[in-house]
Amino acid sequence: MKLSGFFKKKDLMQEAQDYKNSGKYDRALESYANILNIEPKNLKAWYDKASIHLTLEQYLPALDAYKTILELDPKNMKAWHELGFILVNLGRLEEALVAYDKVLGADPGNMKLLNEKAMILKELKKDSEVLKIYDLLLVKDPNNAKMWFEKGLILSVLGKDADALLSYEKVLGIDPGHAGALARKGLIIGTKRQYAESFDLLEKSIKSEPSNWNAWYGKGKVWGLKGNDFVSIDRKYDAMKAFETALGAYGKALELKPDDPVLWFEKGVILNNLGKANEALKAFDKSIEINPDSANVWYEKGLITKELGSDADAQNCFRKVMELDPSHTLARHKLKH
Fold first, then answer.
1. What is the pLDDT of residues 111-140, one digit of tens each?
2. Is residue 243 in some structural domain?
3. Residue 237 lies in a domain
């Protein structure tokens, strides 16, 4: 190579670097483009170019730059990590996981990256895989109350209430006033008819954090269960009082989370228990408006509609149930009668 060519390249790199350091990114990108025209495999130029695009949140040109970097240097773990970050921002989560797994293959104990991977898996609803990562992270950070709580939430979604309860108790061992864990534990033990302790936990949660909709939901759910128990032993007055308390709690929860279809459905059930069928129907309709794909809500709407004397509308509801859930035997039975 001629010395003049060497100094020219050196000058171009210095010029590009100076522009980059001073925040003149457009000029810097022009300089790096000139360098790469002369030397298309200049790894540093590609990396600097990629980092500018990333800084400017220009994800598509950044993606192209990182792909070139990894063609030139396939073992560059920093580039794999940044590629994964870009893919997340582009919404290409499955591809991002591949990139992150490349890094984790070389550094399996990277807690920051494991946390990032867990967030992606949560978005993809891969709850079982998220739990595996949480278990790894909690070995290294056993006093992480936030992660124990997140683990409990996932276990609850999976229907593993006993395991979820253990997670919430871990949270409360670390932070006894954790409003979310108090509410969730209160709900779980309430479903086991441990009413006194359940109500105590739920009231503590509400007192600690009045804006915690989960606590109000739990209170509504557990008082509803207690009302049903009173009905079963023919204590109608006590049942009505319990249902009124449940209705008030659901009302508070809906003030905090008005677009939750489950809350509207649960409120409708309580209204029906209180003999307020027309109001219950409105609550079910609101739930369906938010989420039209719940077979359970359509079924309950069908029952009330039939009770109110609208047989044709009830049949339409039961047909909708069968469309959403062909195995729903109760709806099939209602369609035959």
1. 889 989 999 998 898 999 999 999 999 998
2. no
3. no
pTM: 0.78
Confidence of residue 3 (pLDDT cuts 50, 70, 90): very low
> Three-state DSSP class for 298?
helix
- Among candidate residues 205, 283, 288, the one with its CA nearest the CA of residue 250: 283
Sequence-distant (≥ 6) Cβ neighbours of residue 213 within 8 angstroms: 252, 253, 256, 257, 260, 263
CA distance 4 to 7: 5
Say if CB 99 and CB 92 are below 8 A apart. Answer: no
pLDDT category of residue 110 using cuts at 50, 70 and 90: confident
pLDDT of residue 258 exceeding 80: yes
Tokens for 337? 């009668």
Question: Any idea which residue has 């989960």 for tokens?
Answer: 214
> 300 near 284, Cβ under 8 Å?
yes
**Per 3-state DSSP, what percentage of the chain is helix, strand, and coil (rounded to 5)?**
80, 0, 20
Whole-number pLDDT of residue 15: 87
Q: How far apart are CA 167 and CA 3, in angstroms?
A: 67
Q: Is residue 198 a contact partner of residue 189, using CB atoms and an 8 Å limit?
A: yes
CB-based contacts of 203: which residues, under 8 Å, 6+ apart? 219
The count of residues in the chain is 337
Dihedral sign computed on CA atoms, order 175, 181, 127, 85: negative
d(Cα 224, Cα 273) in Å, to the nearest integer?
9
Q: Within 13 A of 33's CA, how many CA atoms are on the CB side?
A: 9
Does 16 map to a domain? no
Q: Are 276 and 309 in contact (CB under 8 A)?
A: no
E runs forming strands in the chain: none
Q: How many domains does the chain have?
A: 1
Domain span holding position 331: 282-337
Q: Contact 263/254 with Cβ under 8 angstroms?
A: yes
| Residue 293 covered by a domain | yes
